[in-house]
Amino acid sequence: MRTLLLALVFSTATVRGAEMPEGAPAIAITLEQHLPFKSGVLLVAWPDGTVIWSGNAGEGGPPYQVAHRGPDQIRDFLASMEKKGLFKKDADFLNHLGPDASYHSIVVRQGRKSAELSSWHECFEANPKLVATSHGITSLDGARREEVLRGDTPEYREFRGLWESIRRFGRELTSHGGEPWNGKLKID
């Protein structure tokens, strides 16, 4: 599986009078769309607590909002991910997608440790009649999504739990709003 190389290029915009944070973000969430191919940044958070997120939660991209959250909040979350073993998982555990499909990518970094998760489940499960399992995309055929997932492998259920923990944390970071940000976020 290819590793997504994430490079964020910023304009000279400032956040509350300060230059954008130096170094790699602690968390980056993107949507990689196919047909047409394009990438959209949904959320980026740095260890210093700077958070930038898209006002377009469906596809990412501008307009963006920016806020500063406590660095302790980011540090504590990364520590919880380390306790859950995220940084020791292999690519087969962290990647669940099929060929030529759009998918979300999450990169989590703590110092020199990093993990990249990729999954198509959010894209397909936007359709209330579908569920993504460890075996692929299938129709619910009247079943409840939670029931189908309960019957999946323990490893896939663990993956989905880690994924949801990261996405929930992203929602927490953005829940108090922010200020408009006109800088450029680009994935190379």
Could you explain how this protein is built, in words?
With 188 residues, this protein is of the alpha+beta class. It has a single domain, classed as Mago nashi protein, CATH 3.30.1560. The chain has helices at residues 71-83, 91-94, 121-124, 145-150, 154-174; strands at residues 14-15, 18-19, 27-33, 38-45, 50-54, 64-68, 95-96, 103-110, 113-119, 130-133, 136-139, 179-181. The strands form three sheets. An eight-stranded mixed beta sheet has the order 7-9-8-3-4-5-6-12. It has a two-stranded antiparallel sheet with strand order 1-2. A hairpin with a 4-residue loop joins β4 (38-45) and β5. The longest helix is centred in the last third of the chain and has 21 residues, at 154-174. The two termini are 17 Å apart.
Order the strands across the largest sheet as they lie in space.
7-9-8-3-4-5-6-12
CATH class: Alpha Beta
Number of helices: 5
Distance between the termini: 17 Å
Residue-averaged pLDDT: 88
Shape: globular
Remind me, CATH topology? Mago nashi protein
At CATH level 2, the architecture is 2-Layer Sandwich
Helix content: 25-40%
Structural class of the helix and strand makeup? alpha+beta
Query: Care to count the β-strands?
Result: 12
| Helix and strand run | EEEEEEHHEEEHEEHHE
